[in-house]
User: Fold PaaI family thioesterase from Vreelandella vilamensis.
Amino acid sequence: MTVMTVEQIEHFLDDVFPQHMGKIESVGDMRATMRLTIGHEHLRPGPRVSGPTMMGFADVALYVAILAQIGPEPMAVTSDLNCHFLRAASGEHDIIAHAKLIKLGRRLAVGEVLIVSAADETKPVIHVTASYVLPDKA
Amino acid sequence: MTVMTVEQIEHFLDDVFPQHMGKIESVGDMRATMRLTIGHEHLRPGPRVSGPTMMGFADVALYVAILAQIGPEPMAVTSDLNCHFLRAASGEHDIIAHAKLIKLGRRLAVGEVLIVSAADETKPVIHVTASYVLPDKA
Amino acid sequence: MTVMTVEQIEHFLDDVFPQHMGKIESVGDMRATMRLTIGHEHLRPGPRVSGPTMMGFADVALYVAILAQIGPEPMAVTSDLNCHFLRAASGEHDIIAHAKLIKLGRRLAVGEVLIVSAADETKPVIHVTASYVLPDKA
Amino acid sequence: MTVMTVEQIEHFLDDVFPQHMGKIESVGDMRATMRLTIGHEHLRPGPRVSGPTMMGFADVALYVAILAQIGPEPMAVTSDLNCHFLRAASGEHDIIAHAKLIKLGRRLAVGEVLIVSAADETKPVIHVTASYVLPDKA
Assistant:
């Protein structure tokens, strides 16, 4: 059901988006799981994981889920992103993003992401939904 | 895990919010399922189910999921509601809302709802997330 | 800057979407203002104006602002809609929607709407943002 | 109408949130304007300003607008944040955030932000709305 492996997606991402956060743990039918090791640049006072870190990480995880379905397309563009902050994420633990595509249409993809802290994977720290405009087929 | 039965919630809703849409099919731990029979007032041209109908129905389904957890509290107030429209829902079939609470805190609850058409329950027609301000405990 | 008059848009709406709520008060460059007289079908207990009424009314007001710019196109489709509920709107007064397009691109339009009660036009009751997928040009 | 000056807010922010992005240009009644000089850490390929940079910057600008109204309160917590990406922002120019509070209640504040590129201040690059849970008054 997927057209790229984890390794292929990692290579593609390193090429087109070298600053991206996180490592892919797995991809599957309409979904992806990624893990981010927290560095100083991801923190805000607490220390806890900053909001922009979590929003950007969620965005990458959905992009990975899209790539796994449609193949190496550098031009999927985020059109909207909505998030609910649920609890603080300790800066001393990795965070893990579970991304799921809700719809993959011809022109638009919609997905959701739940991010948890490795400190307690049962309590989500942020929930994100986002839409992507897909490239026109040549 | 729930503190009210389907019947208790239906009676409570009929009392505090008689105009509410839909019937409760089941409630469970942090979740509720409701079904709406489509009438003329729910349609837009097509005929398909109108956007306000689906948004309002999602809101009721999350309110029901909250009631099932916290008991008869008339004052949970929707503070934000976000939706992605995924596909048209035929006006000739019921719609079914699957609501799930993502967080139930002391002051805020956050949940998501996937609505499907009874014509094809595998293809969601709308995805909604929403937040609720909970009443202060006396 | 607009390509349709209020009268032309009203006729077009009556034709393609006869169930639409509200009357157009004015349209202008990237904006529209509409007024809704509240009837029994728009109420929830209080009585106050229901959430679905306000969300649906905001959606129509943005559609009108788009029509005023691009002409009679029946197929602009709402792709996402986000709202923050700010205060209760009394069911005894009209509500007024001020819609403004933030972006009108080739494929997507994005806009925002502030709805006020005629009882106090300085205190908004809901803020809405939404995106629309525009029809392909023939 | 404001209870803190730009200098007081800058000092307070440096104290409680030293990693924050941008400089305050002005604050006023229910609003704030900030400017961000783009560095390497804010870029994605293009080079253009990254999404997390813009989302984080919008969040800071709304927090500044809240501080200007309620005084030094370290505990306003972002509860939801929604954004529409409108166009790419060149990585070679500053970005400017115009933040406006739509509602400042006892428990919740809601605001919106329009970010423009200094390259063309008439074309917004992102529109953000967000909610904040305010600290309980002692």
User: Anything to note?
Assistant: The interface with chain B takes residues 79-80, 82, 107-108, 131, 133 of chain D (CB under 8 Å). Chain D has one domain: 6-133. DSSP finds two helices and eight strands in chain D. The domain at 6-133 of chain D is CATH 3.10.129.10 (Thiol Ester Dehydrase; Chain A).
